[in-house]
Amino acid sequence: LAKTTQPISMDSYEGQEVNITCSHNNIATNDYITWYQQFPSQGPRFIIQGYKTKVTNEVASLFIPADRKSSTLSLPRVSLSDTAVYYCLVGDRSGGYQKVTFGTGTKLQVIP
Amino acid sequence: GAVVSQHPSRVICKSGTSVKIECRSLDFQATTMFWYRQFPKQSLMLMATSNEGSKATYEQGVEKDKFLINHASLTLSTLTVTSAHPEDSSFYICSASRSGLARETQYFGPGTRLLVL
Description:
- The structure holds two protein chains of two kinds.
- Chain A is mostly beta strands.
- Chain A is built from no helices and eleven strands.
- In chain A, strand 3 (33-38) and strand 4 (45-50) form a beta hairpin.
- Chain B contains no helices and eleven strands.
- Chain B has strands at residues 4-7, 10-13, 19-25, 32-38, 45-51, 57-58, 67-73, 76-81, 90-97, 107-108, 112-116.
- The radius of gyration of chain B is 13 Å and the shape is globular.
């Protein structure tokens, strides 16, 4: 079961780019990397998913090096509403279907 | 698209009673649904995985007779907390996946806050 390690917390000023790195040294060949955002008392919200290299969507970019042992979520020009906990997950196929384990997540605090 | 709802959003019950929480995928069919529990200031912990029409697979340490899971259709899964006790008070979150395969995105419900008095 691939385990992820992220910084517990980060602070950033509004308007800056934020990069959150996640380590997953034991990632398996077929595992995908997914990032979720969670606000207090809400369910996690999908941000982005990737397998290798770079993926970009309307809210974030995901950078994955060739060895796939880490990944970096990049949030451009954060605003106060981006204050949340960000989770990096690595899928683990068990019993024929997906099972993921949530790590501690990174609590991002955006400062005015 | 890919909306998951939960009902109720919050519930307060007396110790010893049972509580049922519903998880619905509103605009897609979910082969696999997952149930998580989250205590304050902690991460989500997977409780069980259920495939439509099959028995749920519980994580180690989760009592299957206490947390009954029914995934009777491709759009509905229920979690029943039987004989609830104060230590069962938590935030329960479900997620749904179309195929359950590793690449498939999980879509999460808004969560249900359970308080057992």
